[in-house]
Amino acid sequence: MAQTRADLGARPAALPQRRDNQTRLTAAAYLAPALCAIAIVNVFPILYSLYMSLTNRNGPRRFPVGQFELTGFENYARLLSQPTFYIVFLKSVAFALVCVALFFVFGLALALLLEHPAIRGRAIWRTLLILPWAVPTWVTALVWKFMFNGQFGTINHVLRGVGLPAPDWLTVPFTAWVAIVIVNLWMSYPFFMLILIGGLGTIPGDLYEAASLDGAGFWRQLFSITIPLLRPVAVPALILSAIAQFQMFNTVYLMTRGGPFARVGESGSTELLLVWGYNQGFQGSMMYGLTSAFSIVVFLILLAMTLGATRLTNATRGAYE
Amino acid sequence: MLRYTWKRLRRRLSWMLTAVLVVLTLLLAACGQPAPGAPAVEPTAAAEPAPAAPTEPAAEALGSGATKIVIWHGWVGAYAAEIKEVFAEYAQANNVTIELLQVPDMPNKVQVAVPAGQGPDIIAWVNDKIGSNVLAQIIQPLEPYGVDESYLRATFTPVAADAVLYGGAAYAVPESLEALTFIYNKALISEESLPKTTDELLAQAKSYNGPDKYLFVYAARSEAYFSAPWWQGAGVTLVTPEGTTELGSEQGLQAAELIRSFTEIMPQQIDYSVADALFKEGKAAIIMNGPWSIADYLASGMDVGLATIPVVSSSGQPGAPLVGVKVLMLANQARQPEASVALMRYFGSADVQARLAEVNKQVPANAAAQEQVKDDPIIAGFIAQAANGKAMPNSEYIDALWDPLSKTVEAIWTGAQSPADAIAGGARLFEEKAALLK
User: Fold this and answer.
1) Domain co-membership, B315 together with B328
2) Any CB–CB contact under 8 A between B139 and chain A?
3) Average pLDDT score over residue span A283-293
4) A193 to chain B: nearest residue by CA?
5) C-alpha distances in Å from residue B79, one per residue of B75, B361, B372
6) What residues of chain B lie within 8 A of the CB of A202, using their CB?
7) Closest Cα to residue A23, out of A41, A35, A40, A11?
8) Chain A: residue whose CA lies nearest to B420
9) A65: which chain B residues are within 8 Å (Cβ-Cβ)?
C-alpha cells in the first residue's frame, strides 16, 4: 500500500529514502504494542477456535494435551447432519422476525406519542421510557423470571386479581416463548423509539399540512408519509437488530435455559441458536471441538447476514440520497 | 442530526440515572439507618482475615511448617470452621502448613489450573467427578502413597469405598455420605402409619389428600437426582461403567409408570421450593429430601422423623437413592503428594469423621465413626437410608445422564409423552451423549 503511494509520486522527491524508512520503523514501533494486544486478544482466540473445531477435543478422555488430534470436518459434519440444528435455526429466524416487528411497532407508537404536540414534560417521559435499555440484561432476566413465576409472580397476581386465567408462564412451551418475546421487547423498544424520534425530526412538517389540506387522516398520513420517510433510518436499524437477535443468549438462558422441553430429545421451546449450542457443548461434559465448530458456523451465518445487510442498506441509502 | 440527538439523550439519560440512583441510595440509607453507634461497616472489616497474604487474599494458612499443602474446597459455615480447627491441630502436631482456599465453580477451575501447573495438592469435591477427572488427567491414583482398595474396604462403609474406586484403583479418600430419604412431620403422621411400599403410598395418598393437603411431596417434576430412588429401586442401573443405561428397559418402564402415577397425588407444578414450602407449612405429611434440609425443618420448630424410602412394589426392592460421597482427591502435579495423602488418611480417621458428623449432622464414611454417632436419631436415619442406596456413579458417563434423565422425568410428568416413549427417548439421548465421550 505504501509502495503504491510512493509510485503515485505524491511525495516530494527531495525527501531522502533513508528517513522515510526510519519514519516507517518508528511508526511500526509505536503501533507494535497495540498490534500485539490485538493479535493476542482478538486474532489468536479466533484462530485457536478454528483449530479446535478441527480436532476431536470432546469430553474428558480427549481433553489433555496430546490426547486429541486433528480430525478434519468431523465436528462440522456432526453438527450439520442433525435435523435439530436446522429446526433451532428456523426457530431463531422466527423469533428474530416477530421481535423486530414488535420493536418497530412499539417503538414507532411511542415515538409518535412523544412527538405529539400535546405531550408536556417530554424529557422526563423520554428518560423513563429509555430506562429499560439502560438496565443490565441479566438483571432484566432475573427480575422478569420472578415476575413470570406461576405461583408468586407479579404478573399472575394481577391476572388473578382481575379474574383472568394465570398460566405457569415459564413451564408451558407456548407461554414461555411469549414470555421471552415480551422481555426482549421490553429491553429493545427504547432503542427503536430513539432512532425513530430522530427520524421523525427529519420529516418536514409542511408535508403533513399539505396532506391534511388534501383530507388525509392519521392512518393515511402514517402509511403515506411517516413510514416511507422513516425508511432510511428504520431499515438499517431493523436489519442490524434482526441480526443481533441471533446473538440472544443470556436473557433466555437465565429465564428458561432453553426449556421447557416437552418431548425427550427435541429442542426446547425457547432454545434459540446460541442457547442450543451452549446446551449441546457444555451440558455435562465439555465438548470443546464441537462447540468451536458451532461458533465458527454461527460466525459464518452472521457474517453472511451482515454482508447482505450492508448491501441492502447501501442500496436504500442510494435511493434516498 | 441523529447522532447529535443520540449523544444529547445519552448524556441526559446518564445524568438522570445518576440522580435517580442518588435519590434511591439516600432513601435506602434513610430506611436502613442503624441505631446510633451501631457499627455499620463492621462485617466487612471482620470478614477480612487479619494477616492476609497480599497475593492470595482468600487463602487461609494454618500452621507454620516448611511443607505446604494446598487444599481447594467448597466448605462453608460452621462445618468449614470445624474442618479448619481439625486441620489446624494437624498442622501444629505434624509441623506442616495447610492452606485452604475456597474455590467457586470447582470442576471448571481445576480443569484449567491443574494442567497449567497452578493447581492445588488436594481437591475436595464430590465423587461423581472422579471418572472425568482421571481421564482429563486432573487427579492421580493414591496407591503409590499407601491408599489402596484393602485400606478403603477396611476403613469405610462398602458404599463409600465403591464410590472412590475407579477402574479398580483408589482415587480419593471419602468423607461423608449424602442421600435422599423420607422425612415426615410427626404432627401429621405417626411412624406406624407410614407406607411400606409404593402401592401403599399411592393408595394411602388418595384417601389422605384433600384441598391443600398432601400425603407425600418431593421435587418430582424434572429433577433427575430426585427420581433416582424409583429407577434404582425398580432395578434399573442408570449408568454402567461401559457407558450404557438400562433406562429404556422393562424395569425402567415400571419406574416410569410409578412416576406418572405420582402426578395423581401431587400438585402439577411441583418443584423443589414448592415441595419444601408445602412440607414446612404443614400441608404435606412426608417429603423426600436430603440431609441439607434437616437443619431448616428443625429450626422452624417442626417435630420430624426419618424413614427409609419404601419398597418399590414392582420389584419388591427398597427405593434406592444415589449416595453422593464427599471426597478428597490428590491433584496431578501436587507438590507434596506424600504429605497430602497422609493428611487425607487423617481426614478419613474415625475420630475426625465423628467430630465433623456431629457438627454437620452428616453420615460419616468411616465405619467406626458411624458406630460413634449412630445414637443421634437424624444421623441414624440417614445411615439406614445410605445403606439402601447405590453409590453415585463415578464413571465419566454420569455426565451424559443428568440432562436426558431430567427431560425424561419432565416429559412423563407433563404427559407430553407416554412413559414408554419418554424412557425410549431418554435412553436414546443418553446414548448419543455417551457416544461422544467414548
Assistant:
1) no
2) no
3) 86
4) B6
5) 7, 10, 18
6) 1-2
7) A11
8) A264
9) 115
Which three cell numbers, joined as nine digits, stand for A303? Answer: 457474517
- Cell numbers that stand for A298 in this block: 454461527
Range of B406's domain?
181-320+401-437
| pLDDT top residue among A8 and A288 | A288
Residue B212's pLDDT is what?
Answer: 86
Q: Is A286 an interface residue toward B (CB < 8 Å)?
A: yes
Pair B335, B375 in one domain: yes
Distance from CA of B403 to the nearest CA of A (A): 7
Domains and CATH numbers, chain A: 2-53 (no CATH), 81-320 (1.10.3720.10)
Please tell me if residue B244 touches chain A, with a CB cutoff of 8 Å. Answer: no
CATH number of the domain where residue B227 is located? 3.40.190.10
Helices (H) and strands (E) in chain B, counts: 18, 16
Task: Flag whether the pTM goes above 0.80.
Answer: no
Instruction: Tell me which residue in A127, A168, A279 faces B12 most closely, judged by beta carbons.
Output: A127
A16-25, A184-193, B75-84, B287-296: the lowest-pLDDT one: A16-25
Q: Is B53 inside any structural domain?
A: no
Q: Helical H runs in B209-249?
A: 224-234
CA distance, residue A26 to nearest chain B CA (Å): 36
Whether residues B164 and B89 share a domain: the answer is yes
Q: Contact, B293 vs B183, CB < 8 A?
A: yes
User: Is B380's Cβ below 8 Å from some Cβ in A?
Assistant: no
pLDDT at B155: 93
Rounded alpha-carbon distances, angstroms, from residue A269 to A22, A87, A172, A176, A182: 62, 11, 9, 7, 15
Q: Looking at the structure, do residues B281 and B406 belong to the same domain, yes or no?
A: yes
Q: Report yes or no on B40 lying in a domain.
A: no
* The total number of structural domains that make up chain B: 2
**Interchain pair A60, B396: CB under 8 A:** yes
Nearest CB to A264 within list B17, B400, B404: B404
Please indicate whether residue B3 or residue B305 has the higher confidence score (pLDDT).
B305
Asked if residue B252 and residue B305 are part of one domain, the reply reads yes
Q: Are residues B191 and B168 in the same domain?
A: no
The answer to whether position B17 is within a domain reads no
